[in-house]
Amino acid sequence: MTIPNLISVFRLLIVPVVIVAILEGEWLAAFVLFLVAGISDGLDGWIARRFDMRSELGAVIDPLADKALLVSIYVTLAIVGAMEEWLVVIVVSRDVMIVLAYVVSWIMDRPISVKPIFASKVNTALLITYAVTVLASNAFAFSLGPFDEILSVGIAILTAFTLATYLVVWLRHMSA
């Protein structure tokens, strides 16, 4: 078990705590915990690369922790009315489709390696930034104004683009 893997496990464990904080209207706690989780996402990757602590487990658990954190937070924020449902549907659908593609390739005995594309890393960073911003706006009682719509539309476009890119890669892999 490497330090980056332990950080990813920590990120998985923090998910239910953040969800409960949001559901109970404890916005400051949710904001701080999610911010810590978001920072840990960058930290575990940096440590893995910098100190050559990459592992097969890390290649699976890190994106799993990202998906668990982001999907859970986005769904919870939509449930409490703090985020637009249409955006949550796009974000969650993308992750479900990607996971299903990996499962199908595995079932068909054509496993595909887990290699995030650069645009997906940018997308994840933007998703984290937006969630932190929404949590902060609730924790510190300020309005995002037009910034909310700009971020939402940008996330939707980038999310659709990354899904299309993964779909092309997956289809090429499955057709080879």
Automatic annotation (TrEMBL):
GO BP, one example? glycerophospholipid biosynthetic process
Location in the cell reads: Membrane
List membrane-spanning regions.
12-36, 125-144, 150-171
One GO cellular component this record assigns the protein to is:
membrane
Recorded superkingdom:
Bacteria
Write out the catalysed reaction. a CDP-1,2-diacyl-sn-glycerol + sn-glycerol 3-phosphate = a 1,2-diacyl-sn-glycero-3-phospho-(1'-sn-glycero-3'-phosphate) + CMP + H(+)
Report how it sits in the membrane: Multi-pass membrane protein
Keyword entries, A-Z? Lipid biosynthesis, Lipid metabolism, Membrane, Phospholipid biosynthesis, Phospholipid metabolism, Transferase, Transmembrane, Transmembrane helix
Q: What PANTHER family does its record include?
A: CDP-DIACYLGLYCEROL--GLYCEROL-3-PHOSPHATE 3-PHOSPHATIDYLTRANSFERASE 1, CHLOROPLASTIC, CDP-DIACYLGLYCEROL--GLYCEROL-3-PHOSPHATE 3-PHOSPHATIDYLTRANSFERASE-RELATED
Q: What does the sequence similarity comment in the record state about its family?
A: Belongs to the CDP-alcohol phosphatidyltransferase class-I family.
- For this entry, the protein name equals CDP-diacylglycerol--glycerol-3-phosphate 3-phosphatidyltransferase
What EC number(s) has UniProt assigned to this enzyme?
A: 2.7.8.5
Q: What Gene3D superfamilies does the entry give?
A: 1.20.120.1760
- What GO molecular function terms would the record report? CDP-diacylglycerol-glycerol-3-phosphate 3-phosphatidyltransferase activity
Q: Under which pathway is this protein filed?
A: Phospholipid metabolism; phosphatidylglycerol biosynthesis; phosphatidylglycerol from CDP-diacylglycerol: step 1/2; Lipid metabolism
Question: Which classification does the entry list for the species?
Answer: Bacteria, Pseudomonadati, Pseudomonadota, Alphaproteobacteria, Hyphomicrobiales
